[in-house]
Amino acid sequence: MLISCTLPVQAISNDKINWGFSKSKNHEPADAGRRLNELIKKYGAFYHGNTKEKTIYLTFDNGYENGYSDKVLDVLKKHKVKAAFFVTGHFVTDQPKLIKRMADEGHIIGNHSYHHPDLTTKTARTISEELETVNQAVFQVTGKTDNLYLRPPRGVFSERVLNEAEKLGYQTVFWSAAFVDWKIDSQKGWKYAYDNIMKQAHPGVIYLLHTVSKDNAEALDQAITDLKREGYTFKSLDDLLFEKQLLLPAL
User: Fold this and answer.
1) Which residue intervals define the domain NodB homology in the entry (predicted)?
2) What pTM value is reported for the model?
3) Domain assignment present for 29
């Protein structure tokens, strides 16, 4: 008589994680540490590109509009830089002209969820709904259905969230350079944004910026100009994903 023994399936952890890392100094790559590095690699997520090449990826989180997105887009157009804009449902429905301009000018429209919730508190079904409703809203404006980059709201996630995103076909993207730029009532001047952008530059850096910031809008032109002078080139997340799919050993 044969006795079968089925081992229980281990549940995927939903312990809440707040994205964080050791910031770059002297152009050395930022580092999230072994635990986070291993976890996000397991699910194909990333927070920087090839740390052997002086490439830069600009990303912006857009929850609402504060009057500076057009200026940011003007600067990107001037420098022929393609960025990624992670948008909420509110931003899409409130600013369809900006969404269309972003898409028409070749920028990536990323998914930042519809209501900007803590995804670790949501069921798999609700996570799917949060992301799909953004996709539908973007499609209504742009006719495009390639909105498959995800940035968890506030950088809050868990292994379960990464797993659900992967199952839904999303590429989760974090960041390796950021600073407090979203507080619209305490902007500190363009030099504050410029200095933070410059001092955190490193090969493969993914910047997280916010277009609600007056400082960012006023600093971006000079920052891009000076980063190019330092030998950096600007690429899009599509370029980075293509490189990762080629299994470059340095990524």
Assistant:
1) 54-235
2) 0.93
3) no
